[in-house]
């Protein structure tokens, strides 16, 4: 299989000239890139989730607001819960990142290859990357969504903790809320993830082509930096375009978890995606749809940039090994 990473791009590349890596290596590269990136961006993810779940305005002028800025939230979490709070839910988050990365990148490679072989479309087109990126992310989401719900619950709880361990969380949630609790927020997640991931892959490819057009003389000299910057740009653009759906997802995922949220301010219950959107608009206004956008964009820039950076780096690591073995 002529997968693109060996040739310096994500997705199937018919011009790779035999510089291929196996499906297993693609999965490993995606998994490890997710693992390394998760360790780096976990603090921003915790702050983002706290912002998204806060009903009160993210403003100093609101005396009831617990958090109103990234630095202030960071200091307050550190004072009240200690440094380990920034890695709350880190075990499920790591399982999420590793599983998601493996399924997403492997699915993307297979789908772009299928498009090339079964249709007349160019596997490197913006639209192909958008559709294949969305479908691959949807497949990854279905595979790891229960872990995402667990991660959100851990990141959302304050002190004293409702869930002591991962096993305690699984058992308690299953007993008190039933098996469907692990798929709370799935509808907005799938609705949001398709365009978000689709834009990630297509913007990443487009930005790399733009970079090559603007700076043709750079060649492969600064390839890793280019991958990082193009990934960051793709992350920011994608997150901005799909952010409200991410907020709805987080609000729905903590439904039934209100007792752990009382120390953070007001809590709300939602009957579904449309009810959540309606309540947010009525009570918090249009700006409520973008609560937590700042840390989210910072996180998206770092996470998407580093995911593509590490993925392509690990794939290029596998390629020389294959050449040495041949």
What are the key terms here?
mainly alpha; globular; disordered N terminus; 326 residues
Provide an overview of this structure:
- The chain starts with 22 loop residues before the first helix and ends with a helix.
- It has helices at 23-53, 70-81, 90-118, 126-156, 166-177, 186-214, 223-253, 273-284, 293-325.
- Residues 1-8 and 321-326 have low confidence and may be disordered.
- It is globular and about 60 Å long.
- The protein has 326 residues and is mostly helical.
**Shape descriptor:** globular
Helix percentage = 55-70%
Are there runs of 5+ residues with pLDDT below 50, and where? 1-8, 321-326
Biggest sheet, open or closed, and with what strands and sense?
Answer: none
Order of helices and strands: HHHHHHHHH
Distance between the termini: 16 Å
Number of helices: 9
Structural class determined from secondary elements = mainly alpha
Strand coverage percent: under 5%
Please state the CA-atom Rg, rounded to the nearest Å. Answer: 20 Å
Q: What is the count of β-strands?
A: 0
Brief summary:
With 326 residues, this protein is mainly alpha-helical. 67% of the residues lie in helices and 0% in strands.
Which secondary structure elements does this structure contain, and how are they paired or packed?
Layout: H1 23-53, H2 70-81, H3 90-118, H4 126-156, H5 166-177, H6 186-214, H7 223-253, H8 273-284, H9 293-325
């Amino acid at each position: 299989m002529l997968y693109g990473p060996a040739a310096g791009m994500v997705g199937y590349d018919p011009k790779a000239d035999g510089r291929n890596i196996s499906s297993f290596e693609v999965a490993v590269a995606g998994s490890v890139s997710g693992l390394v990136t998760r360790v780096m961006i976990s603090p921003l993810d915790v702050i983002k989730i706290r912002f998204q779940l806060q009903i009160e305005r993210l403003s100093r002028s609101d005396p009831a607001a617990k958090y109103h800025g990234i630095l202030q939230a960071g200091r307050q979490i550190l004072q009240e819960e200690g440094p380990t709070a920034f890695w709350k839910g880190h075990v499920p988050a790591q399982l999420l990142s590793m599983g998601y990365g493996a399924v997403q990148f492997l699915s993307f490679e297979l789908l772009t290859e299928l498009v090339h072989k079964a249709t007349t479309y160019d596997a490197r087109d913006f639209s192909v990357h958008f559709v294949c990126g969305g479908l691959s992310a949807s497949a990854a989401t279905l595979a790891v969504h229960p872990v995402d719900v667990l991660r959100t619950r851990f990141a959302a709880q304050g002190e004293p903790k409702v869930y002591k361990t991962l096993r305690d969380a699984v058992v308690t949630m299953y007993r008190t809320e039933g098996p469907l609790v692990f798929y709370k927020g799935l509808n907005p997640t799938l609705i949001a993830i398709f365009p978000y991931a689709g834009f990630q892959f297509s913007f990443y490819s487009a930005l790399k082509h733009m970079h090559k057009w603007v700076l043709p003389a750079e060649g492969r000299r600064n390839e890793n930096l280019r991958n990082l910057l193009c990934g960051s740009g793709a992350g920011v653009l994608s997150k901005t375009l799909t952010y409200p759906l991410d907020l709805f997802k987080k609000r729905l995922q903590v439904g039934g978890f209100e007792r752990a949220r009382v120390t953070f301010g007001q809590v709300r219950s939602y009957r579904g995606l449309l009810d959540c959107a309606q309540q947010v608009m009525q009570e918090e206004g249009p700006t409520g749809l973008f609560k937590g956008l700042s840390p989210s964009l910072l996180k998206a820039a770092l996470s998407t940039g580093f995911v593509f950076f590490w993925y392509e780096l690990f794939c290029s690591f596998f390629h020389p090994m294959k050449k040495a073995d041949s």
